[in-house]
Structures are given as structure tokens and as C-alpha cells.
Amino acid sequence: MTGPEISVLLVDDHAxxxxxxxRLLEVNASLHVCGEAANAAVAYQQFCALxxxxxxxxxxxPGASGIEAMRRILARERAARVLIFSVHEDxxxxxxxxxxxxxxxxxxxxxxxxxxQAVRTVALGTRYLSPDVSHSLAMRTALSAGPPGRQLSPRxxxxxxxxxxxxxxxxxxxxxxxxxxxVANHQSAIRQKFGVDNGVQLAQIASRLGLHASGSAAPA
Length: 220
Hints:
- The protein is of the alpha/beta class.
- The protein has 2 domains: about 5-140, Rossmann fold (3-Layer(aba) Sandwich), CATH 3.40.50; about 150-210, Arc Repressor Mutant, subunit A (Orthogonal Bundle), CATH 1.10.10.
- Strand 3, helix 3 and strand 4 (about 80-85) form a beta-alpha-beta unit.
- The protein contains 10 helices and 6 strands; from the N terminus they run βαβαβαβαβαβααααα.
């Protein structure tokens, strides 16, 4: 006997990928994909309109990331249940997502039944981490001070991610809903924390943290 139906909002910038997730989830009678979104802005709009039980969120979205999309959703509804479903398994990404309010984190390398179990678990309000993520966090915890990126605030981390992708400050300000002066201040703070003077050095640090440019030039 199945329990009550769980409604799911899928957030991923690839339509073919979303279709695959939809088919995977809806094989289970208790799961229903009520909506889809390809970017942070639409994800927020869909969440407000559909009120899904669980949001399955990719981290790598065009423009504002899944972390930013989740931040907006949780600002609107503190009880929102967000499950991150990402290619990134590094503890830095996992820790940032959990710190920002994600209730679960599953990598795309996981077996299909792991995603299904994660959605059901998160729908109950219980944290779920895929086995590879749990291992990554355990390994990171075994290290002494953790990665340098943990010195950054969540907003600084988001600005760093977009700088590395090559976005200019005005675009970052627009996408994050901040003033250009505030973004510039974040950029200065990031450089001070890492002890670098320019965008090339900052990109090198970011690369060591697992943040990589998407074919765009390094920030100036």
C-alpha cells in the first residue's frame, strides 16, 4: 500500500535530463513531478505557484546557481524541502549546500533508486546524503582545518563562483539582486581572504577549490 503522493519540482537547465528524471520518479506511483524549471528565476516562480513537497535542484544553473535559487525559496518558505542533485561530489559543494539549507544531497553518479529514496526521505523532513557524499564529507572532516573556501560567507562564495565563470560585476549584481558596489566589496573581501591581487590568481585558487570556468575568460 502506497502513502500519500509526493509532488516534486525538477530544476535542471537541460530539458532532456529533466525528462529522464521525470520518467524515473514517476515510475513510482507515490511520486508526481508537478513542474520543471531551467534556471533560478523560474524555479522560484514555479515553487511559489505549485508549492511542491520536494524541490530537486541542480547546482549548475545558468546565471544564479542552485544555491541562490534555494536561498530565495527558503526566504519565501522556511519549511521548503530542497534536495540537491548534482554532478559535484566534493565536500566543499556539499557543505555549502547543507549550510544554505538543503535537506539532502545526491550526486548524479548515484544509482537511480538512490534518487527515489532521497526524494521520499526528504519529503518526510529527514536529511538524506548519497553514500559517495557521506564518504566525501567524512574524508574532509578527517582533515584538520578544512578547505580555504569555508572562510567565505555564502554570498561571497556565490560571487566567487560567478566571477570564475567570467561574469562581469554588473551582471553578477543583476542576477543576485545586489548593487554593483556591494558585489565589488564582496570581490575585494574574497581577494583579501585568499591573499591575491588579481582575477588570474583568484581563478587559480578557485580551481583548487573545485570551481572551474565554463569556457569563459577569467575575471579581471
